[in-house]
Design a protein that fits this description.
The protein is of the alpha/beta class and about 130 residues long. The protein is about 25% helix and about 35% strand. The chain has three helices and eight strands. It has an eight-stranded mixed β-sheet.
Amino acid sequence: MTLAVTSGVIATLLAEAARSAPCECCGLLLGRDGVVVEARPAANIAADPRRHFEIDPAALIAAHRAARDGGPELLGYYHSHPAGHPMPSATDCEHASGDGRAWAIVAAGEVRFYRDGAEGFVPLEFRVI
């Protein structure tokens, strides 16, 4: 499956990563039918946001409620690696949930997408629309 992502989402991801550096940014990927139309920033509540991220649970709850009320679906999540590469880190892999959602990782001016599946993170093809 190829994920479709708007150019605005890519721009938001790159801007959020730059704005948050040297801390990791994080947030939600929202849309419908495999098309990501919004990257919604969330607070990084990790104890050490320069090395880790934790999406604010209030943002997750709000997104799930909005989806139930007919809003956009929660298609995935994103975070940045300010001093790393746009690929899942060992910590990312340890915390993978296997929920099948998409993950965007932003680093070095690049965005890559992965599927969080039963076997861990798998690169996900995407196209910018």
